[in-house]
Structure formats: C-alpha cells, structure tokens
Amino acid sequence: NIPQFEEVRESSSTIGNYLLDNAGDNFEVKGILQGYQSNYLIIYGNTNSNKGFIVILDENYEPLEYITQYNTGTAFGEFQILNVAEDGNLYGIDITSQPRFIMLNNITLKTPSQSEFTVRLRQSYNLPSPLSTASEYFAITKAVGQGKYLIGATIMQGNDPYQIATELTINVGAENDWVNYQDTTSPFVGQSMWASWNENVLNFKIGGYVEGSSLFYVEYQKIGENIGKWNMELPTVSGYSEGYYYMDSIILNENTAYVGIFDGGEYQTFENIYLYKIDYANNQAVQIEKIEGSITVQVLSYEDRIKFTITNGTVFFLGKQRLIYGSVNDLILNVGI
Fold first, then answer.
1. pLDDT of 295-331, one tens digit each?
2. Which of 93, 161, 171, 255 could form a disulfide with 137, with the two C-beta atoms 3.0–4.6 Å apart?
3. Which residues does 237 contact at the CB level (< 8 Å), separation at least 6?
C-alpha cells in the first residue's frame, strides 16, 4: 500500500517575506502544526536573538498574525518543539533561563469578539538532568486522554550525538515522574519519533540517520520490554559524497515511516527531491516520488531551514519561500514555504 502522487503542482506564498519583515534575518523555522479542528496552520520558530515567534496561517498558507508574547505580555522563550494535544491545546519544550516543558492553550480558537489570537502559558515544569543537558529537542508526543508525554532529544558526548527518550507523567498534587530511555550503544542523528501507550506500556521509535560510506536510516526502538537498534542503507544520491544533501524522516506508526532526501548542489539549489517509504518487511526504502529540476529554496543553511513533518496527513518540507506540493492519495507533499 504505497501512496502514489496524482500530480505535482507549484504555488507561492508570502510567508517567506512576511517572516523576514517580522522576524528579521537569520530566523529559524522549527516546525508547522495543524490547528485543532480548523483550517489554520501554526508556524513556530525563533529569531536570531533566540526569542520565539508563532505565525498563524490560513488554508492558503497566507499569514494572518505574528505573535511574540503571551497574553501577560511576557515574551516567548526559545521554542524547541511544539505539538497539538487531542483537545487542541499546545504543549512542548522551550528554553528561558533553562529548558522546560510547557503547556499552552488552543491558540487557533478565537471567538467572534476577539480581534487577535491569544497564547496563554497554562503550566510549565523545568526539565531534570540528563534531559536538561540535551543539545536538541526534536520530538514530543502525548498519550491520548492521559497526562503522559514522551520527549525525544539528543545528548552530545564529545562530537557524537546520542539519543534519549524521556517519558513524563504529570501527577496532580504530587511530583511528576520522569523515566529515561537513553541509547549509549552508538551515535546517530535523531530526527523523528513515534510513541504509543498500549495498556500503559510505552512503545516508541526514534528515527534518524548515520553517515558512513553511504547513508543509513536508523531507529532506536522500544517495543514491549525489548529495546534495541535497527538500520537500513538508503539509496545513494549524487550530492551525498560532496556534502550537498539534506535528509529528514518521519515515523507515522509502528509500521510506517517516511524519509525525505534533498539531493543538492552548491548555492542552495537542490537538483532532485526524493520521498521514500520505509519497507520494514523487506528492509528497503521504496521511492514514492522524485521531483526533478534545479529548485532553489533560498535557505540559509540546510540544517536550520529545511524540515520534514507531517500534520493531519500532510507532508511538509519547510524551506523559506518556495511551495511545491502534490496529492499523494491521502498525503500532500509540500516543499518549501
């Protein structure tokens, strides 16, 4: 059951210039979220002064409002990762004086009498060690109907990235529980995470990559009581040997993961863009689509400005000003904003 592109289309949005005008040069887009039961989209990121911002977009990817502070007037911290709960409220990680877990309101919910969108900080908890020492927080998810969360992060040991998954259980009227699952076997770059709580037993996968003679997709997994690693070699792209490439991944569920690869050239021009589905049974990456042609996405750096995410069945490659998208059965591929 491999999705197929029905067509590839190209559109444009003013979001790139809008962010330059409001956030200034060298801003960083951290992610994009689908508003709860609405057509609104949420882009969040940070300015070059490490202050967070949120932009609300309409269904045509056009910006409606640029927000930099809570309803109290306090400026946002530096956003690391945000997600949307089943009730529409946001939660995630930011950094103020130290990293903390934050719980926000449903920011896309606006009554007819409201002229602006409102962001409220409902609760926050400082992260304990070793999670507080992470260099990056790349994923967070929640157990539906429960106060349980899983945070995916990277802890550096020297120059090597090692991955950690920390389960947070919020206990009303008592201390919260923090349980760490830290991979110490071998380093890899963590990018995505899936988790489920089956009868209160946590299962998760952290996906990413490791570089060698070729590029490998890697997963650090906990399924039941079994914890281990799994990897597979990815198809070779021409830009890999010269360092002009960027890869990101997303895990939808225990049996479904996607990998996106920008096969690049110099001057931020990507010659080809590939989307693969991971075939676990046959240990291979099945190509879903290849978008050919020199596509300039006008990013300042591959790592900081291109991200791969899925929201409500939509696959986004976040760049800066280009928007290329195509229907993939129930998926849409968006390259650049």
1. 444 433 333 334 454 444 444 444 433 333 333 333 3
2. 93
3. 215, 245, 261, 263, 272, 274
Q: Which helix (H) or strand (E) holds 84?
A: strand 78-84
Please tell me the predicted confidence (pLDDT) of residue 166.
98
Per-residue buried b or exposed e for 33-43, using 16+ beta carbons within 10 Å of the residue's own CB: bbbbebebbbb
Q: Per-residue pLDDT for 35 more than 90? A: no
At 180-231, the pLDDT tens digits run 999 999 999 999 999 999 888 999 999 999 987 788 999 999 999 999 999 9
C-beta atoms surrounding 211 within 10 Å: 13
Q: Is the peptide bond before 3 cis (omega within 30 degrees of 0)?
A: no
Which residue reads 């299962």 in tokens?
A: 203
Q: Which of 336, 278, 309, 330 is nearest to 33 (CA)?
A: 309
